[in-house]
């Protein structure tokens, strides 16, 4: 499990494209992999991946084609920056919200508005996933746990403080970027249950 509190950015060191499988090697900041083990889980752009090999500052991940199909990992190239989060441990403070690291779909940045104190980013969402995005609800975008601002048709926005921009890849994001989305699982369960009862969800 993860919390959506991104711990920093890492760089893609190499990508080996095998048949039906990619091996992605990521270069992490100093000490970011302290006490890592084979089989450990690390979220890369919000995608839960398993450590196959590691050195002091690098970790290799074997990524299946289904994961590549659903996420933006298939768009990565050498030198790209990615968000990372080590798996939460029992007793850790949950500063965001509980995430599985199982990305549901990808969304596209449709607009970015920056001010002196924050940044508003708007996303375009595939229509079938909009019902799970509610005003003041939670989403994870590229692994960042964020509160939904306004929702309109197939778009929603989030408000990012300077700290989030500094520690994540959103500080250099541009319109048109493809972003991983994990909707809040509790929201998904409630919406699906309400729909089975034949009721309508008000997205706010």
Automatic annotation (TrEMBL):
<keyword id="KW-0686">Riboflavin biosynthesis</keyword>
<feature type="domain" description="Lumazine-binding">
    <location>
        <begin position="1"/>
        <end position="97"/>
    </location>
</feature>
<dbReference type="InterPro" id="IPR001783">
    <property type="entry name" value="Lumazine-bd"/>
</dbReference>
<feature type="repeat" description="Lumazine-binding">
    <location>
        <begin position="1"/>
        <end position="97"/>
    </location>
</feature>
<keyword id="KW-0677">Repeat</keyword>
<dbReference type="Pfam" id="PF00677">
    <property type="entry name" value="Lum_binding"/>
</dbReference>
<protein>
    <recommendedName>
        <fullName>Riboflavin synthase</fullName>
        <ecNumber>2.5.1.9</ecNumber>
    </recommendedName>
</protein>
<dbReference type="InterPro" id="IPR023366">
    <property type="entry name" value="ATP_synth_asu-like_sf"/>
</dbReference>
<keyword id="KW-0808">Transferase</keyword>
<dbReference type="GO" id="GO:0009231">
    <property type="term" value="P:riboflavin biosynthetic process"/>
</dbReference>
<feature type="domain" description="Lumazine-binding">
    <location>
        <begin position="98"/>
        <end position="194"/>
    </location>
</feature>
<comment type="pathway">
    <text>Cofactor biosynthesis; riboflavin biosynthesis; riboflavin from 2-hydroxy-3-oxobutyl phosphate and 5-amino-6-(D-ribitylamino)uracil: step 2/2.</text>
</comment>
<dbReference type="GO" id="GO:0004746">
    <property type="term" value="F:riboflavin synthase activity"/>
</dbReference>
<dbReference type="InterPro" id="IPR026017">
    <property type="entry name" value="Lumazine-bd_dom"/>
</dbReference>
<dbReference type="InterPro" id="IPR017938">
    <property type="entry name" value="Riboflavin_synthase-like_b-brl"/>
</dbReference>
<feature type="repeat" description="Lumazine-binding">
    <location>
        <begin position="98"/>
        <end position="194"/>
    </location>
</feature>
<comment type="function">
    <text>Catalyzes the dismutation of two molecules of 6,7-dimethyl-8-ribityllumazine, resulting in the formation of riboflavin and 5-amino-6-(D-ribitylamino)uracil.</text>
</comment>
